Amino acid sequence: MEIREKQSLFSLFAASFSVANRAGMALAVSIISMLLILAIPLAIVVFFSLRTNVPQFLYLIFAFFALFCFVWLQMACLRIIAAKAEKNNESVSEAFTNTVVPTVYAFIYQLIINITFGVAGVLANLIPILGPLCCMLASIYFGIRLMFGPFSIALRGQGPISAITYSWQLTSGRFFYLLGAGLLAAVIPMLLAGLIAYGVIVGIPLYFADSFSLANLSMGWIITFAVLGFFYLLCCLAMFIFIVLVFLNLDYGYNRDTFTPVAQEQLNQQTPQVFGPENNVLPPGAGNTVTVKDVPQVRVLQASVRTDPDNSELHQHLEKVYQPKPEDIVEYTEEDRMPTILFDDDMAKQLEEQRAAWQAKKNEHPHQKGDDDISSIKMSK
After folding, report:
1. Of 12, 163, 242, 341, whose Cβ has the fewest other Cβ atoms within 10 Å?
2. Which of 237, 71, 93 shows the shortest CA–CA distance to 154?
3. What are phi and psi of 74, to 5 degrees?
4. Which residues contact 281 (CB under 8 A, 6 or more apart)?
5. Do residues 275 and 282 lie in contact, with contact meaning Cβ atoms separated by under 8 Å?
6. What pTM, to 2 d.p., does this model score?
């Protein structure tokens, strides 16, 4: 599947499992690396807590660092998934290196969103019944319209404010399309979790009562639950990748089919030029839709490319770089030349008279054949 071409939700959904298969190992390495990074400050906090009382600010620093690492891991995972979907060669270390600054932008972005939604929620709760309902509907609407902000920061290098603007532009006119994609990505893991829970609590104990016991599981059941858990995690990962693929597909389509606001503003500020002999441009307003009818008469005003057959420098250069071999030099004699035939009106008239005479002779003697059947004309060198 080509992510740069327009795709349906079904094709993106199907491709998400393939991308999850390709990105699974890199994502696992990323998670393990982040756990190792978090293990160092965690070990320091545990060490101080066992020996002495740990100051409260140390816990706050560790909590902030853990939150930063969690957001950093999300940004790096986004780049890894996008690299696998776009078939780039970005490694795990490059993904973490390229998302240090975007992680700071993501913090600022989440801070702006959380403050805005928090203030709106407080104001909505002042109105009984209708306020919370309007707040819920507004949260769904603005959540869909701003869902691609972190993606824009991690994958397109947007700042916090520009990410909000770009997400709003990218989701314009696609609310129900994205709502369906979000419901699909949320409902499928929930259904799968419900099926697994029903099987563990009801189905398996009912049909395998003789061999199944939660208190004493056999190796076969442990392997079965491990496979189900791995399949569930793969499904959750595929649904997250599905949303990333939706963003990439819309992002390429938006930049391919429309002008960006900056380019459109620059285009509007340009002064149109009149088509004429002084400036070889199209008529104003023609753009890319000009046809032959729009410019009925076009003529060449001046040659764009000129050649100089008497270029002495070129001949000197060729004489230096090209030395023909003696056997390649061919001398033509007068006998080797082809005869030059110049037809004029007299010769054409003579040929026509001979053809008429031959036709009359043929009519008189229809059964006679000879050299006179073919008309000829004398030619000289």
Report:
1. 341
2. 71
3. -60, -45
4. 273, 274, 275
5. yes
6. 0.62
